[in-house]
Specification:
Glucose Permease (Domain IIA), six-stranded antiparallel sheet, eight-stranded antiparallel sheet, 8 helices, Nuclear Transport Factor 2, Chain: A, globular, about 15% helix, alpha+beta, 3 domains, about 475 residues
Length: about 475
């Protein structure tokens, strides 16, 4: 459909309106300048108010709503119709046969008010309860209107009998739900409004933390989280960053007509700390598989995450003899305690299957996951488990499986994370896990071309800069 919805949003019709539009298929305009000008005026008015949503396809077929006009011309001659003073040599206009009553369409538009619902908003504009119910039931597989938010836009077109011709509902700034009519009747469709894609470069030197530095450069926390995720297998940004560390990145930003909407992919990233340097490049092969790779084509991904939680600090490390803070006796502590606020998300460190979920002594609420390479990971002192998780559930790397807590023997909220291999616990911080799959041989020429481009962009250190933009 033509963006009559966005036209109306940008005009005074952005407020709630309901009006009727006469429709006639019998308007025939003669040849010449007056006929052409009248036709252009009529069609322009229809398009401006959203009455016409299309003029037909390449074969000349009518659109769903058909060709509509906003006036019906009856028997009077042109001088009688337009008034005296017209020249006598005007081109002939052939009038259609008079109609008893022109068909009409009812157009209803508006935004959901505060503390209201779609049903209440449409009802206040005279839309029948049965019509609202039909809209809700038809779109229910795609959207539950109980989740409607104030400000969401809607537009309903009905014929004079009240039959729905089309309905459109814009959720937020991106998502549109439509009712479209076909041979089967009404069907629901979900679509995303097009966004402008911009590729941007950012570089900086860390003063206190990565989050603060990125924020001071004008970008949001969402970008920092995406950047940290790229290096999650190599760098712990909650504890390993130092003042003077350098970072660079090339990334996507998406905009609509109102401004910034969201961040896209990190296309290239680099981090330098002392004599260590990490570089990751985003690449998608022709089969659609996408991952981050080092410049030589090896995956930066590891089979296990370095840590299963975004923690504040490590409160206790792996040890064969530790003074227990509650029992006050020395005993092995064969895991890592990650301190974090209660409720912080806990991730699965690798793909696997849940083999235990329940209470186990000093661990409190405990979760165990068995992985393909023989490891079993332990997650203790949880305050809650993820919804729907049970013994036998398959989980993926970095899937949320629970929340940090202090159940069992714990002096404060933290996660007790452990790894067992062959019946024995091992130090998670000392295990070397294999990398993911490298760039395939057939994709290496394309990868090399992309690599040279992105590395050149990373080397040009400068403030935020738009490199390219496209819809």
């Amino acid at each position: 459909m033509r963006d009559w919805r966005s036209r109306r949003q940008r005009s005074r019709f952005q407020r709630r309106h309901s009006w009727r539009v006469p429709v006639s298929g019998g308007l025939r305009l003669g040849e010449g300048a007056l006929g052409s000008a009248a036709l252009v005026f009529v069609l322009s008015a229809c398009v401006s108010y959203g009455v016409i949503t299309g003029f037909g396809d390449s074969r000349g077929e009518r659109s769903q709503l058909g060709l509509a006009a906003v006036a019906t011309f009856g028997p009077p001659s042109l001088p009688e119709f337009f008034g005296p003073g017209l020249p006598s040599d005007l081109p002939h206009v052939e009038a259609a046969a008079p109609q008893e009553k022109p068909a009409t369409m009812q157009v209803v538009t508006g935004h959901i008010p505060r503390a209201s619902t779609l049903a209440a908003a449409l009802g206040s504009q005279g839309v029948a309860v049965q019509t609202v119910d039909r809209i809700s039931r038809t779109l229910r597989p795609l959207f539950d209107f109980r989740r409607a938010q104030p400000g969401d836009f809607y537009a309903l077109i009905q014929d004079e009998s009240g039959e729905i011709l089309s309905f459109e509902y814009q959720r937020g700034r991106r998502t549109v739900y439509r009712l479209e009519r076909d041979e089967q009747g009404l069907r629901g469709v979900r679509s995303e409004l097009p966004l402008e894609r911009r590729v941007v470069r950012l570089a900086g030197v860390i003063d206190r933390s990565l989050f603060e530095t990125v924020h001071e450069l004008g970008e949001g926390a969402g970008l920092t989280e995406k950047y940290a995720d790229v290096f999650i297998w190599d760098i712990d940004f909650s504890s390993q960053t130092r003042p003077g560390d350098e970072f660079r990145m090339v990334f996507e930003k998406f905009y609509d007509r109102e401004g910034f909407v969201r961040y896209g992919n990190i296309l290239a990233a680099q981090y330098r700390s002392g004599n260590r340097e990490f570089t990751a490049l985003y690449f998608k092969d022709k089969d659609g598989y996408a991952d981050y790779y080092t410049p030589d084509g090896n995956s930066v991904r590891r089979t296990f995450l370095r840590a299963p939680v975004n923690y504040t600090h490590i409160s206790s490390r792996y040890s064969k003899s530790r003074l227990h803070p509650i029992l006050k006796v020395r005993r092995p502590h064969e895991g890592i305690d990650y301190a974090a606020p209660t409720g912080t998300a806990v991730w699965a460190v690798a793909d696997g299957e849940v083999v235990f979920k329940g209470w186990e002594g000093g661990f409190g609420r405990l979760l165990k996951i068995r992985h393909n390479n023989g490891y079993i990971s332990y997650y203790g002192h949880l305050s809650a488990y993820a919804d729907g998780l049970h013994v036998g559930s398959r989980v993926q790397q970095k899937q949320v499986i629970g929340r940090v807590g202090r159940t069992g023997l714990a002096t404060g909220p933290h996660l007790d994370y452990r790894l067992k291999l062959g019946g024995r616990f091992v130090d998670p911080l000392k295990v070397k896990f294999p990398a993911g799959r490298p760039v395939t041989v057939i994709a290496q020429p394309r990868f090399a071309q992309m690599r040279d481009l992105r590395l050149a962009e990373l080397l040009e250190v400068s403030p935020a800069l738009v490199l390219e933009a496209a819809m």
